[in-house]
């Protein structure tokens, strides 16, 4: 109920602001909705949205897989941590725009370059979170697994992974929010399709209704994925933790 009230308040504020500012700078909700329907009817909206979601899925999966493995290794092996820490600091502070531009210069304006650039920008946050998770592992549980002669994979599955699950969930949530932003920049700079590409075209044409139509559709999809996928996964990953009274 509160979410619906918040949405209604947003629409009312938007509509009121559009009346004062003017449709050229801030089109009204019906004007933006008209563009959404027109783009959806032509199929362009779904084409570009699908391209963006595919890039997000590939880059996110790649970054989480590599980041989890590297972060776990750095958290468990001091030598790996010392070797990787300077590069980790560099990646954490390197602007996303620099990574995207260099990827396009070195690998060309290709799909692989775009996905790699997005994944690289997400990678250090995953490494940092999983490294902290690996450092926080209960050593006594490792000793228990050794005493009972548990096979390594089984010990990892039943002893280590449940302890890492909250960190994986936190990394996934924060990383996905980062990927949503970066994918639009990558598409704006070097892809011939996607929501970011359409926003760039709308900007060049000063087509505010079209810009808002794609932006708000993208935001709506992000909200749905966050509500239906990310939040339930995070709750499941933390289900073993005692709840505060």
UniProtKB/TrEMBL annotation:
Compartments where found: Cell membrane
Pfam families: BPD_transp_1
TM regions (residue ranges): 56-75, 87-106, 211-233
Protein keywords: Cell membrane, Membrane, Transmembrane, Transmembrane helix, Transport
Gene3D superfamilies found in the cross-reference section: MetI-like
Span of domain ABC transmembrane type-1: 49-229
Superkingdom of source: Bacteria
Topology relative to the membrane: Multi-pass membrane protein
Xref: PANTHER family: ALIPHATIC SULFONATES TRANSPORT PERMEASE PROTEIN SSUC-RELATED, ALKANE SULFONATE ABC TRANSPORTER-RELATED, MEMBRANE SUBUNIT
Similarity section: Belongs to the binding-protein-dependent transport system permease family.
Protein name per UniProt: ABC transporter permease subunit
Originating organism: Bradyrhizobium diversitatis
